[in-house]
Queue: 2 jobs
Job 1
Amino acid sequence: MIKTQTTPNILMVRPASFGFNEETAENNAFQVNDQSLSPQEIKSKAIAEFDQFVIKLKTHGILVSVFQDSDSPTKPDAIFPNNWISFHEDGSVITYPMYSPKRRLERTDEVLNLLEHDFWITEHIHLEDAEEDNKYLEGTGSMVLDRENQIAYACISQRTDVNLLDQFCEIVGYNPISFVSTDSNDELVYHSNVMMAIGEDFAVVCLDSIKNTTERQVLIDSFEETDKEIIPISLEQMNQFAGNMLQVRSVQGDRYLVMSETAKNCLNEKQITSINKHTRILTGKIPTIEKYGGGSVRCMMAEVFLPEKSLS
C-alpha cells in the first residue's frame, strides 16, 4: 500500500447553524465572542465564506465532497469535520471522542453514505466510547500526521489524551511523538494543528510554544530524520492561524499549502520564500469562521485517503 502525504480528495461540511460554542471556548483561546454580530449574521457570513472557499479549492483542481449539515440538532462547529473523523489508505474510517457534548452530535454515518459512492470503505473503527471516561482525541486536530513516515505528532491537552494517542498509533501502525505546547499566556494549546503543519518535505511549526527543551529537540530531530525543512513561526503568528495549514494535491498534480488570508498576511518574506520552495500557497478568506469558531482552513478540511472505486 502506497502512503502519500497529500490527496486531492477533501470532505467539507457546509454549516447549517455555525456559531460561537461556549463549551469549546473553555479551552480554545482562539475563539472570540465580542457581540459585534448577531447569531444570524455570524451564521450567514460563515456560510458565505465557506461557499467561496469551496469554489476556490475546486477552481484549483481540488476535489471537494460537500456534506450539508442538518438544521437539527444545532451543531455550531460542524464546519470542522476533521476533529471527529479520519479516512485512511486501507479503506478504514476512524471516529473520535469529542470534548464538547455539542460536537458529539456531528458524528453521522450519512457522511460515509456520501463518500461510499466514490470510495471503498472496509472498516469503521470507533474510539468515541472513551467519552464515557472523559478522555478525548479529536482526530487530525489533536494529531498532525506524517503519513509517509507513519508518525503522529500531538501536543497533549484536555482534548488530546496520551493513552488514546497510543491506541490510535497501535491501530494504524504509527509512532507517537507527544509534547506539551503552550501559548503566550502559558495556556495549553488545545489542538496540535494550530501550532504545526506537516507537508511532504517541510514542517511549519511553532517551536517557541514547546518550553521543554528535550521535547523540542525530539521534534526537531524527527523532522531532520524525515527530511523536512523546518519553517518556524512565532507565538504571535500561531495566534494568527499560521500553524493551521494543510498541504493538498490537485488532480493535475500541483501541490498547494492551503492557509487563510489571516495566516498568509502574518508571514514574513523569509517564511513565504521557504514555503514557495516546496509548494504553492493557496488562501481562503474566512475571518468570521476563525473569529467565532476558533479554527481555520485546516480544521475545515478532512482529507480522504480512501481507495477510489474508479481507480481500484
Job 2
Amino acid sequence: MYTFRIKPGIHFADHAAFKGKKRELVAADYVFSIKRMFDPKVRSYWLYLFEHNLLGLDMALAAARKTGRFDYDAPLEGLQALDRYTLRIKFKRPDYAFQHWLTTGQFGAVAREVIDLHRDGSNRAMEHPAGTGPFLLKAWTRGQKIVLAANPNYRVETYPAPSSPTAPDDAAMAKDLANKTLPLVANIEISILEEAQPRLLTFERGELDYIGLPASLAGNVLANDVLKPAFAQRGIRLHRQTDPSLSFTFFNMDNGVVGGYTKEKIALRRAISLGFDRTTGINLLLNGQALPATQPIPPGVPGYDPALAESKPYDPAAARALLDQFGYRDRDGDGYRELPNGKPLTIVRDSQTEMPETRLTSSSGA
C-alpha cells in the first residue's frame, strides 16, 4: 500500500475549462488520471502495471470491456482520495517498484474538466494540455515545431542550490543558477526532426542550441569519447550521462529452433550467449556509447551495486565445443552448422531502431 500527500497550493495553468477560476491540484486528480489507464477507449500501454494487481480493478475492467465504457465515478478499493490532499493506492501484493513509476510522465495528473471539454473519440485531449508546470503550450505545428511559453502564474519555485557533487562541466552553471526563480527562460522552441542525420546537420548549422546525439552518429562527432576538434573549437560542449536502463536479448522459448528444454536446446542457447562479445558489440554497433551490464539493476536506480564486476561470458572456444558435443555440426562442408537432425540451422533475430543518446549543447545553449 502506498499513501501520498499532495502539496497544497499547486495550481493548474489557466484554461477555459476552469471558467476563470483558480484550479488547485488535489488527490482526486490523480485518481482520475490513473483511472484513464483503465479506460478501454484510451488503450493505455501502462494498464499492465495495474491489471490483476490493483485491489478491485479486475471486476471494473471486465465491465468496461463488456460495455466499452469505464465508469470513472465508481469507487475502487485500491485507488482512493482519502481527503483533498491524500492519495492511497493498494495492491493485492507488495509492489516495491511502483514508487519509481510515479515519477514518469504517464503518471502526470490531468484535470477532468479539461478532458471532458476536449476529449476525442478515444477520450484523449492531447491538443489542449493543461498542466501544473512552468511552461504553457504556445504553438504546435504537428511534425515540425512545439513552442512553449513561461507560465505567468507558476508557483514560486527556485533553482536548487547544489547539495551533492556536481559534474565539473556543470558546477559553474549550477552555482550561477542557484536560487533563481523558475522558469529561467521565457520561451522554448522544440524543432521536430525525426531522423538523426538531419538533426545533427541542423545543429552544425547553428539552428539548434541542444541535441541528443544518437549512438549511430557518435563517430561523426566523437573521437575516443571526446569531441572532435572541429566541434570543440566552436565552443560546443559534450554532456554525457548514463541512462538508467538495460538492453537485453531474450530467447523465444516456444520457437522450434532455440526454444525448449532438452539438452541440445539448452546447449544451443548457451553457445549463442558464449559466442557474443559484448565489448565488441558496444564498440561497433553502438559506437562505444554504452556500458556492459553487471547486474539486473541499472546504474542510477536504488539497489545498483557499483562494486559488482562485469562477468566475462565471451568464450567462443567453449561455444564451439558445446555445439560439437550436441550435434550442431557442419555436415555438408559449406561452412555453416546444421541442426542435430541434419536440417539447416536458421536463427531469426528481431532488432529495434532506437539508439542510446549523448547530449550535445552549443555555447549559446541554456
